[in-house]
């Protein structure tokens, strides 16, 4: 009588294991390894029967004419836009390979010369094609993704003087397309656009000029146009009181395709020797009193504790080797505001296990709640108000030196735990890596939470007064 129970146990174990198989490996394995996006995003039969674990997370990718995406990848050079800064000179090339850009060198497998801004639009589009819960029928979808490369479409309004005065037009042709009587306008009107989302790969400030502004200043009106106000927009930086937008991490240069490569990098960062206390990677600091100037002055005084990588003139933009090695040998990475409060360098530093030092809340805590737990900043970062540094004589290096060594170690450990969630893995990654949520996965989850609440708010308007959807 000993055999039946054992047999039953084995059977139970087997069915348990089968249940545990990650759902996405079933539904996405067929497109693993493809290098080009499938052209017919919604005509694909494998998208018709998204399984039950997709309840509440089904997404329809809206098919758009190529003028809204692919065509924009062809006209993005400084020859087209003379006012684009010099760091953008090989801008088109940096958007190749679905936004990853070229590899840093021939033998590199996980490192790319990725554009820290606009690369996110093609990258996000390509990754969306691998999303396990796509549906071809928009009426079954919980959300509709618009593969519109909106910051690329903004270039003429930002960098061609003859089009400055038309910057209120940014995005309107998309709206007219979606509501055109010949283009299934019910997809948009079903929830008045509240279930639609897209990526706008830049700081919200560049896209929030009042449509009626006179004179017209730098920036478009994408985020202030009433027609587009129901969209959920993923930006790299949000305004202090955002409505449509939510910030997601800047793309870094690191896009591993397997769990082994991710883990190899993280263990390198974990065991790296860090003789340097503080690092600043960036430019600026001239002009009147400002925190970048204070950082430079302190670092010049104490080269034994502080290193500066001079990135003036965009010299580091597509060259991660220049700053990743210094980040690996530093305990703290100083992340002061520049033209705007946030910076891509914050995410490079997190990948390197370099504890971020912020100088204002808008630099990260007020931004990336879907990716970095808002209530935990003390555990993985240091905050020194910029006013204290510039006007009250607080010395950054003294503050950092005073932090006990095992506290620094604990912070670094926490930073490295958060790192997988702020990097964008390569498209077509291994199943093992897909089982870890990356910046894309967390961004989609956040967008779905927000859209769920907004759609419900049509019937229950008081929902809109609820807390933000950040605190998980
Ligand atoms: C890298 O590969 C390209 C194209 O295959 C080749 O032209 C180039 O010489 C290679 N560079 C190095 C440093 O090997
Ligand atoms: C844009 O509008 C301003 C007035 O608001 C005008 O002075 C300027 O000439 C216009 N620029 C172009 C290129 O039309
Ligand atoms: C946005 O949603 C609101 C509230 O549901 C609705 O009144 C409005 O008409 C919508 N705007 C557009 C442009 O569809
Ligand atoms: C630089 O060092 C000098 C001499 O030790 C000191 O007086 C000065 O305050 C320091 N300046 C900064 C910005 O740390
Ligand atoms: C940084 O580099 C720029 C351009 O290469 C140079 O003009 C500037 O003086 C440098 N700044 C510092 C502080 O070394």
TrEMBL record:
<feature type="domain" description="Exostosin GT47">
    <location>
        <begin position="54"/>
        <end position="398"/>
    </location>
</feature>
<feature type="signal peptide">
    <location>
        <begin position="1"/>
        <end position="25"/>
    </location>
</feature>
<keyword id="KW-0812">Transmembrane</keyword>
<keyword id="KW-0735">Signal-anchor</keyword>
<dbReference type="GO" id="GO:0016757">
    <property type="term" value="F:glycosyltransferase activity"/>
</dbReference>
<keyword id="KW-0808">Transferase</keyword>
<dbReference type="InterPro" id="IPR004263">
    <property type="entry name" value="Exostosin"/>
</dbReference>
<feature type="region of interest" description="Disordered">
    <location>
        <begin position="28"/>
        <end position="52"/>
    </location>
</feature>
<feature type="compositionally biased region" description="Basic and acidic residues">
    <location>
        <begin position="43"/>
        <end position="52"/>
    </location>
</feature>
<dbReference type="GO" id="GO:0000139">
    <property type="term" value="C:Golgi membrane"/>
</dbReference>
<dbReference type="Pfam" id="PF03016">
    <property type="entry name" value="Exostosin_GT47"/>
</dbReference>
<keyword id="KW-0732">Signal</keyword>
<dbReference type="InterPro" id="IPR040911">
    <property type="entry name" value="Exostosin_GT47"/>
</dbReference>
<comment type="similarity">
    <text>Belongs to the glycosyltransferase 47 family.</text>
</comment>
<keyword id="KW-0333">Golgi apparatus</keyword>
<keyword id="KW-0328">Glycosyltransferase</keyword>
<protein>
    <recommendedName>
        <fullName>Exostosin GT47 domain-containing protein</fullName>
    </recommendedName>
</protein>
């Amino acid at each position: 009588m000993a055999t039946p129970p054992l047999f039953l146990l084995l059977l139970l174990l087997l069915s348990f294991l089968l249940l545990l198989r990650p759902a996405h490996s079933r539904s996405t394995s067929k497109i693993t390894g493809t290098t080009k996006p499938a052209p017919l995003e919604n005509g694909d039969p494998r998208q018709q029967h998204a399984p039950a674990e997709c309840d509440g997370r089904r997404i329809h990718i809206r098919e758009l004419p190529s003028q809204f995406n692919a065509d924009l990848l062809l006209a993005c050079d400084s020859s087209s836009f003379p006012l684009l800064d010099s760091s953008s000179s090989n801008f088109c090339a940096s958007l190749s390979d679905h936004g990853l850009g070229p590899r840093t060198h021939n033998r590199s497998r996980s490192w790319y010369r990725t554009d820290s801004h606009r690369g996110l639009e093609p990258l996000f589009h390509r990754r969306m094609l691998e999303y396990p819960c796509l549906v071809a029928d928009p009426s079954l979808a919980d959300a509709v993704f618009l593969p519109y490369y909106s910051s690329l479409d903004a270039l003429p309004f930002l960098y061609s003087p003859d089009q400055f005065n038309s910057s209120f037009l940014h995005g309107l042709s998309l709206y007219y397309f979606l509501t055109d009587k010949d283009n299934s306008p019910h997809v948009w009107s079903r929830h008045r656009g509240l279930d639609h989302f897209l990526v706008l790969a830049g700081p919200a400030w560049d896209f929030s000029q009042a449509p009626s502004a006179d004179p017209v200043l730098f920036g478009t009106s994408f985020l202030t146009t009433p027609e587009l106000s129901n969209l959920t927009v993923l930006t790299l930086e949000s305004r202090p009181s955002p409505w449509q937008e939510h910030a997601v991490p800047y793309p870094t240069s690191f896009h591993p395709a397997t769990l082994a490569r991710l883990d190899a990098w993280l263990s390198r960062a974990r065991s790296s020797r860090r003789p340097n206390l503080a690092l600043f990677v960036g430019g600026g600091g001239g002009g009147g009193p400002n925190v970048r100037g204070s950082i430079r002055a302190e670092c010049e005084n104490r080269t034994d504790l502080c290193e500066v990588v001079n990135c003036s003139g965009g010299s580091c933009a597509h060259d991660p080797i220049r700053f990743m090695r210094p980040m690996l040998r530093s305990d703290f990475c100083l992340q002061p505001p520049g033209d705007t409060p946030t910076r891509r360098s914050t995410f490079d530093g997190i990948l390197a296990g370099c504890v971020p030092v912020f100088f204002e809340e808008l630099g990260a805590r007020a931004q990336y709640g879907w990716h970095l737990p808002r209530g935990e900043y003390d555990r993985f970062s240091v905050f020194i108000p910029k006013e204290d540094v510039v006007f009250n004589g607080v010395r950054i290096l003294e503050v950092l030196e005073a932090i006990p060594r095992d506290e620094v170690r604990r912070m670094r450990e926490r930073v490295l735990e958060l790192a997988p969630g702020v990097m964008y893995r390569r498209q077509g990654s291994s199943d093992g890596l897909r089982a870890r949520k990356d910046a894309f996965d967390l961004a989609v989850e956040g967008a779905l939470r927000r859209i769920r609440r907004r759609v419900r708010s049509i019937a229950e308007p008081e929902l809109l007064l609820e807390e933000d959807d950040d605190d998980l």
